[in-house]
Write a structure and sequence with these properties.
The complex is a heterodimer. By secondary structure, chain A is an alpha+beta fold. Chain A is built from 15 helices and 27 strands. Chain A is rod-shaped and about 200 Å long. The two termini of chain A are about 70 Å apart. Chain B is of the alpha/beta class. Chain B has one domain: 2-Layer Sandwich (Transcription Regulator spoIIAA). Chain B is built from 3 helices and 5 strands. Chain B has a 5-stranded mixed sheet. In chain B, strand 2, helix 1 and strand 3 form a beta-alpha-beta unit. In chain B, helix 1 packs parallel to helix 2. The N and C termini of chain B lie far apart (about 30 Å). The chains are: A alpha+beta, B alpha/beta. The interface between A and B is medium-sized, with 32 and 26 residues.
């Protein structure tokens, strides 16, 4: 049991571990696929956003370049340059300003600084001379960078001192014929616009793009309502911090660094790459693991839940199996126990059956057979010899199997009990019936045939209780009344019937398992077949007869399953022949004083037979006790009657026959006196018959033609 | 008369002497003689069977009667000189365990 539970537990744990491993492997595999996918997407994003930004810049560049010729043409008319700058502004709605900053003193009439500058105000383009005390452009980054550059450049971001907003400028140096730089032609783009262009769309809802200069200086990024400037600065610091590990992408076009977001968005990655060509800027895209792997995590969580549910179901199944297994084992054990108990019961039942012909008796040859349909059966047969009488019975308990077997055992012991001191089969039947009716709640009944065969005379007395009539082999069935089966009505009066068995005749008894033995076609063996076999078996011994009958039955039913117990009993009556060499007779009156005559008679007979003194005393004592018994009890007090004593001997045995014409009285039916009691408890009666039983070999009583005939036999 | 029965009192004990064959008929007469021993009044009873050859169950009944009387008054019954055949009868009837034998 313990072992089973451990096995179940092991299976469940193994399944859990296996599921977890599968889940983990799948998670990490999918995650690495997603990481790869992220890299691809990030690189595409970087490339695409770079193109978009450059496109946007390009348009500005083209606008400016497209007007450089105008500018040069109008150099003679400085005031016309206001229009030129206005035109540039008209070409592109993203531009906030456009100006031409001339080298100092280029137009003497305009003073030291001159910068025609167009700008937007309320969606209208206006222009002013931007240079003044407050705006010394020569100190501005765009001018310095632009004048120093050898061609067009994009300046680093700066905060312009007119609009006070961060912006970048595109500058074109303006050369005279001598290739001397005379002015910086510039247009301004607010960084906000670049940031919006860059962030018009995001890879993931929370991700964003940043533009940086080659030196890692912030140019543009998302609006502050999307990402705080602090977070952006953090990302920039990571990109610029050489101590932070950065790994190149597989394609080598970008680098990636991971970080922990300070705003509580967990881990993230930043991919960044340089622009190809001008301007030499960097572009970066930031994305958060939550959004990249969030679905995977959710999936893993869901799969985990599913696995948990599966595991619970598996556990239930395994436990159920284990329990079923235990039940099965318990059932098997129970079955084994039942089988073994049934085997024992079967053996007990076999033990109950008489084994062989009664030993030391040549008057009858008996053979019985019981083939149960199951391990135990409800059929019964029994026989034994007491006082020169063969008591036998055959019966069939309704039903089959264990319940029937138990009833059968009860009937068996009742038969033995009832026959201990009773020679009348009807009274035996009555006792069996009354006792078995008591508490017969199960309403089982028993068909029973009881016979008592007097061996010296061949007189068969019998009583039938609903059983199949026995058959005299080679002749007819016994004319037995059916009566009621046993254990139906307690007060049913069973009647005795009698007949005389001829020397050498055989009585055959059976249960309906014989006549109702069925073959595959459901045909019954039947009474006629039984009679046929019996008629052809007149000279067989009981054993041979039963063997033949069983053979016939088996041949008939072939391989059909035996449906009922099959029981048979055959009794062959073969009385010993007794040729008397000596016959003496004495007739006494029923008076104890006559015993004196009896004593003399006995002495003379034993002397005649040459019997030694001690044995002679035994014979005399036994006979005297039997005779005194008759004198005392056969006739009512005050009436006279005779007691006749015959003594017969063939030299081997001595027979006493004590005959009277008094009331029917069977001394053999009296219970044996208890010889173990103390003097105080000992009863006076019963000693005589006890001595008869102890001293003689057999004692036999018969009531014949109104006479009590008591036969005592002693082998000498 | 195939049987002779006598009683004597010697040294405060009853001594019953049974001689011959005590069949049922003889037992009737012997009982007449032995009746006083049914009340032995605390005296021990010696039953001398030295010359007793045969006894039937009616004789055993008389002996049982004497034994019951003796036991009731606290005395004992001793069987003396019982031959083998009679001892066998005592055995068969279980009387052998009731009496004392000498």
């Amino acid at each position: 049991m313990k072992l089973k539970t451990n096995t179940s537990l092991t299976i469940i744990i193994a399944a859990a571990v296996l599921l977890e491993i599968i889940s983990a492997v799948q998670y990490y595999y999918t995650r690495s696929l997603l990481a790869e996918e992220l890299e691809h997407r990030a690189e595409s994003e970087l490339t695409m956003k770079a193109i978009i930004v450059k496109n946007s810049l390009n348009m500005s560049e083209i606008s400016l370049r497209g007007h450089i010729r105008d500018l040069k043409r109008n150099l003679s008319y400085p005031d016309s340059l206001f229009g030129t700058t206005e035109w540039v502004l008209h070409t592109h709605p993203n531009l906030v300003g456009c100006g031409v900053a001339f080298v100092p003193h280029f137009f003497p009439e305009k003073g030291r600084l001159f910068e025609p500058y167009a700008y937007r105000e309320n969606n209208k383009v206006k222009s002013i001379q931007a240079a003044g005390e407050k705006h010394d452009y020569t100190k501005s980054g765009f001018y310095k960078e632009g004048i120093a550059a050898d061609g067009p450049i994009w300046t680093a971001p700066y905060v312009d001192d007119i609009f006070k907003i961060p912006m970048v400028s595109y500058t074109l140096p303006v050369w005279d014929k001598n290739h001397e730089t005379i002015a910086v032609f510039a247009l301004d783009i607010p960084i906000r616009i670049l940031g919006d262009t860059l962030n018009y769309r995001h890879m993931y809802p929370s991700s964003y793009d940043i533009l940086l200069t080659a030196d890692g200086e912030y140019i543009a990024g998302p609006r502050e309502d999307h990402v705080s400037r602090k977070d952006v600065e953090h990302i920039i610091s990571i990109i610029n911090d050489s101590t932070v590990a950065k790994s190149p992408s597989m394609s080598g076009r970008s680098q990636v660094a991971t970080f922990n977001d300070r705003g509580g968005r967990g881990k993230g990655s930043v991919f960044f790459a340089n622009f190809k060509g001008q301007p030499r800027w960097q572009i970066a895209v930031v994305c958060y693991d939550d959004e990249v792997y969030g679905k995977l995590r959710a999936m893993r969580r869901n799969i985990g839940l599913l696995m948990l549910v599966g595991l619970v179901i598996l556990s239930l199944i395994v436990l159920r199996f284990a329990r079923n297994d235990r039940r099965l084992q318990a059932a098997n054990l129970m079955q084994e126990r039942n089988d073994s108990e049934l085997r024992i019961a079967s053996n007990i039942q076999k033990e109950m059956l008489p084994k062989q012909s009664p030993t030391g008796c040549s008057d009858v040859d008996i053979h019985g057979l019981l083939i149960p349909a199951r391990a135990v059966g409800g059929d019964i047969f029994d026989y034994f010899i007491r006082d020169e009488k063969l008591f036998f019975c055959i019966g069939d308990v309704s039903g089959k199997g264990v319940p029937s077997a138990m009833v059968m055992a009860v009937i068996h012991s009742l038969f033995r009990m009832a026959t201990a001191h009773e020679n009348n089969p009807a009274r035996i039947m009555q006792t069996v019936n009354e006792t078995s009716c008591d508490g017969n709640e199960s309403n089982m009944f028993v068909t029973l045939f009881i016979g008592v065969l007097d061996l010296p005379t061949g007189r068969l007395r019998y009583c039938n209780a609903g059983h199949d009539r026995p058959v005299i082999v080679g002749a007819e069935a016994l004319p037995a009344e059916a009566n009621l089966p046993v254990a139906v009505f307690a007060d049913f009066a069973y009647e005795m019937q009698e007949t005389v068995l001829a020397d050498g005749s055989t009585l055959f008894l059976y249960t309906d398992g014989l006549t109702e033995a069925k073959n595959r076609e459901r045909q019954m063996f039947g009474v006629e077949r039984v009679m046929d076999v019996l008629n052809g078996s007149v000279n067989l011994t009981p054993a041979q007869l039963l063997e033949k009958m069983v053979g016939e039955v088996h041949a008939f039913v072939e391989d059909a399953e035996q449906s009922d117990d099959l029981t048979m009993l055959a009794i062959r009556y073969t009385p010993r022949q007794f040729e008397s060499k000596l016959t003496e007779t004495l007739v006494l009156k029923n008076d104890v004083r006559e015993i004196t005559r009896f004593s003399s008679f006995m002495k003379s007979v034993t002397e005649q037979l040459g019997i030694e003194k001690s044995l002679a005393r035994q014979l005399r004592l036994a006979a005297e006790e039997a005779v005194v018994n008759v004198i005392d009890y056969a006739y009512p007090t005050g009436t006279e009657g005779d007691v006749t004593i015959h003594i017969l001997s063939d030299g081997h045995t001595i027979r006493f026959q004590i005959i009277d014409t008094g009331v029917a009285f069977d001394p053999t039916a009296k219970e044996k006196a208890d010889t173990t009691l103390s003097a105080e408890d000992r009863q006076i009666g019963g000693l005589g018959i006890l001595l008869v039983r102890e001293l003689m070999d057999t004692i036999n009583y018969e009531r014949v033609d109104g006479q009590n005939v008591l036969t005592l036999i002693k082998n000498v | 008369m195939i049987m002779n029965t006598t009683i004597k009192e010697i040294d405060g004990k009853y001594v019953a002497t049974l001689k011959g064959e005590m069949d049922t008929a003889a037992a009737v007469e012997a009982e007449e003689v032995l009746k006083p021993l049914y009340q032995s009044n605390g005296k021990d009873v010696i039953i001398d069977c030295t010359e007793l050859e045969y006894i039937a169950s009616s004789g055993l009944r008389i002996l049982l009667g004497i034994l019951k009387g003796a036991k009731a008054s606290g005395s004992k019954v001793v069987m003396k000189g019982v031959n083998d055949d009679i001892k066998n009868v005592f055995k068969l009837t279980g009387f052998i365990s009731l009496f004392e034998f000498e």
